[in-house]
Design a protein that fits this description.
The complex is a heterodimer. Chain A is mostly beta strands. Chain A is built from no helices and 11 strands. Chain B has strands at about 5, 10-15, 20, 25, 30-40, 45-50, 60, 65-70, 75-80, 90-95, 105, 110-115. The chains are: A mainly beta, B mainly beta.
């Protein structure tokens, strides 16, 4: 199978602090991972494409300096929310594709619920 | 840019009955893929079914099947013999064939299966 682990599942932080979310492909290598944001009962909004060994590609309107993405290895991508504010509170989900899996769907992490107080 | 529209925010169905969730999309691409994902209360996204645009045959996966109408840009999901575990939010998603995974999602349909 193709398993993606996301950690932590829930995090509460104070305004102004930074939070790091990890996305790991457990049984496969992923050159590309994706980070989404989801508001309650809403759709997934693509934030950025994380590329192993190179800079992430951000979607229009997403602040690069606020949402730092690092994809230093073929099994790990991290999203760091810097100087978090209450409006950053949301559900963040990562996804990855197993090489050779083709376009038969992407495996998603279980998500991280971020609450900024 | 691609858009995906799910016109039914909420639906309900009795256990064991059949329900159809609608999805339309807009694209100028010819090579693309369509997906239905399920997000239960646990919020884990699960792939339900996929369809390649170049295939005329509708995809089927056990109790789940699609009605893919390429000319009409329609991609509905039929769930047969609905089960309580099918209660979830369902998302229709579009992906360009050459876009290595960058997907556009619809707003979702919340399906409730009633006992």
């Amino acid at each position: 199978g193709a398993v993606v682990s996301q950690h932590p599942s829930r995090v509460i932080c104070k305004s102004g602090t930074s939070v790091k979310i990890e996305c790991r492909s457990l049984d496969f290598q992923a050159t590309t991972m994706f980070w989404y944001r989801q508001f309650p009962k809403k759709s997934l909004m693509l934030m950025a494409t994380s590329n192993e060994g190179s800079k992430a590609t951000y979607e229009q309107g997403v602040e690069k300096d606020k949402f730092l993405i690092n994809h230093a290895s073929l099994t790990l991508s991290t999203l760091t929310v810097t100087s978090a504010h209450p409006e950053d509170s949301s559900f963040y989900i990562c996804s990855a594709r197993k090489w050779g899996q083709g376009n038969d769907g992407y495996t998603f992490g279980s998500g991280t619920r971020l609450t900024v107080v | 840019a691609q858009t995906v529209t799910q016109s039914q925010p909420e639906m309900s169905v009795q256990e064991a009955e059949t329900v159809t969730l609608s999805c339309t999309y807009d694209t100028s691409e010819n090579n693309y893929y369509l997906f239905w994902y399920k997000q239960p209360p646990s919020r884990q996204m699960i792939l339900v079914i996929r369809q390649e645009a170049y295939k005329q045959q509708n995809a089927t996966e056990n109790r789940f099947s699609v009605n893919f109408q390429k000319a009409a840009k329609s991609f509905s999901l039929k769930i047969s013999d609905s089960q309580l575990g099918d209660t979830a939010m369902y998302f229709c998603a579009f992906m360009k064939g050459t876009n290595a995974g960058k997907s556009t999602f619809g707003d979702g349909t919340t399906l409730t299966v009633k006992p």
